[in-house]
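Note to self: keep these together.
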Amino acid sequence: MSAPDPQHPDAPDEQPQSAQDSPIEARLTEAEARAEQHRADFLRAIAELENFRKRSAREIEAARQYGVERFASELLPVADTLALALASAGSADVATLVEGQQATLRLLQKAFERAGITEVDPSGQAFDPALHEAMAMQPSAGHPPHTVLQVVQKGWLLNGRLLRPARVIVSSAPESAPPGG
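Structure:
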């Protein structure tokens, strides 16, 4: 390295700086290019995320509006059969009406089955407060305590989740005669 000029102490080195700055400038240019690429990637990721959010919101809204479409289409034959039964009620005999009601009930049960709706009919089973709602307790010598004696209204499950509990009458221990009676 050459010594600085004593007459011009503030003068820069006479050595060309392009040889020293060249690798630094190249690294700086490369770093700026990488930073610009990262920024572009970041903006693209934000745009994709926003598009995903919008698409998800549309899909959720569509599911909310049309989620029961399959179930509704399963119920249409039930509605048609009921309308036909009402139209022919004046001219049909009782046996035909009963047969039509049974057929309609079978259609409804098939639609429920396809939709994952199952019946809870706990007759004779132990009372389960998670699935049953006790309407009354009735003393019974013929049944152990806390056994379902009668189903007032059947319960329903949707894919294993309780829609409505079965309303039941539950047995209790028989009342003993008061002492000295």
